[in-house]
Amino acid sequence: MKRRRVLALVDERLKPPENPRQSELTTADWKMEYDVVATLTNLGHEVHTLGVGSDLGAIRDAVDERTPDVVFNLLEDFHGVPIYDQNVVSLLELLRVPYTGCNSRGLMLARDKAIAKMLLASHRIAVPDFAVFRIGRRLRRPARLRFPLIVKSLTKEGSVGIAQASVVSNDDELAERVRLVHERQKTHAIAEEYIDGRELYVGVVGNERLQVFPVWELHFSRLPEDAPRIATERVKWDPEYQKKVGVRTRAAKDLPTGVDGEISRLVKRVFRALYLNGYARIDLRLDANGKIFVLEANPNPQLAYGEDFAESAEHAGVSYPALLNRIVTLGLAWSPERTA
User: Fold this and answer.
1) 3 state DSSP class of 336
2) Is 80 helix (H, G, I), strand (E, B) or coil?
C-alpha cells in the first residue's frame, strides 16, 4: 500500500508512550492505541498521534498543520460522553478529511440501543423485547416485558456496568438495577429480554461490498451452572476474573446446519440497516431452538491485536497489518455524502 500521512485520534488518557516497557504491552489501558499506531508505523506510514481531551479545536488545528491523507479514528467517546464520538466524526466530515471507521449517522443510530433495536425490528430482524427506563421518571414495566431481563446502560459500550446481578427476575430486582444504572452510569437504562443461549460475535468490514469474518463465540469453562453466560464488565476487562471462570473466545464450533450462512446474511442486513461502514462487530444470541437474536451492533469495535475482531480476521486469512491497511483503504474510499 502507498505510504500515507495518518493522524491517529486517541483519548488523551490513552495516548501510548513512545518507548513503552515490554511488560506493559499486554495489560496497558492503551494497548489498542499502541498496537494500531505501532503497526501502521511499521507498515511505513507517517503516523502522528493526537491525544484528544475536550477541545475540538485541537483536532482542527492538527488537520490544518499535518494535512493528513486520512484520520485513523480511535476515539470511543468525547469529553467522557460515549455518544459524543459521533460529533467528532461530524467535525471530520465538515473538514472534508477522510477518516477510518463508521460515519456519524451510523454511530448515532447504533450507539443508542433502543433506537437500533427499533430500526432493526422494522426490518424484521429479531431483537429481544425491551423497554427504556429514563432518569427522573417513574419505573413502570410494560406487561408484555417478561422476566428474566438484563439491565444495561442505554448508551455505554464495553459492558460498562454489567454484572451477573444485571440479570433480574422480578420487579424489585429490576427497580434496584435500573437505579444503579441511573446513579453510577449517569445514563438512561434499557431492560431487555434475557435470551438464554450461545453468545456470538461477528466481525464485518467494508463500505458497500462487505466481508463477514468467521463467527466467534464466548465460552466459560468454570462458571457455575446456574450463572447467566453473559459478557459482564469483569469478563471483558478483569484478567484475574477471566482466569477464575475460564473465559475464552474462539471460532464457533458445531453450529446447526445452515446457521453459518444465515448469520452471514443477517449481519450484512444489520450493517446496512444501521447505515454502518468501515468495520463493525455484531453481537448475537443463538437460543436452544436455533433462533438468532441481534443484541447490538458495535461500530468501530476494539482493534487491539489478539482481541476478538483481529483474531476472527486472522482466522479468515487477514493478518493484523493487512486488516489495518484495509481499514485505511476503506476510509480513503468513503464519502460521507453516501448517507445523505
Assistant:
1) helix
2) coil
Distances (CA, A) of 306 to 95, 249, 251, 281, 284: 33, 11, 13, 15, 21
Residue pair 16/37 in contact by the 8 Å Cβ criterion = yes
- Torsion of the alpha carbons at 300, 178, 29 and 65, rounded to the nearest 10: 50
**What predicted TM-score, i.e. pTM, was given to this entire model?**
0.93
CATH of 197-339, one of 3.40.50.1370, 3.30.450.40, 3.30.470.20, 3.40.50.720: 3.30.470.20
Report the DSSP pairing between strands 5-11 and 70-73: parallel
Domain boundaries, the chain: 5-99, 129-193, 197-339
User: Which grid cell sits at 90?
Assistant: 461530524
Hey, what's the torsion of the CAs at 203, 89, 13, 243, to 10 degrees?
-10
* Residues 6+ away with beta carbon under 8 Å from 35: 303, 304, 305, 320
Angle made by CA atoms 117, 192, 295, in degrees to the nearest 5: 50
> Looking at the domain covering 129-193, what would its CATH class be?
alpha beta
Over the stretch 66-115, which tens digit does the pLDDT of each residue have?
999 999 999 998 887 878 899 999 999 999 999 999 999 999 999 999 99
| Local structure of residue 15 (DSSP, 8 states) | P
Q: Name the burial class of residue 139, with classes exposed (0-12), middle (13-18) and buried (19+) by CB atoms within 10 angstroms of its CB.
A: middle
> What is the Cα–Cα distance from 314 to 295, expressed in whole angstroms?
24
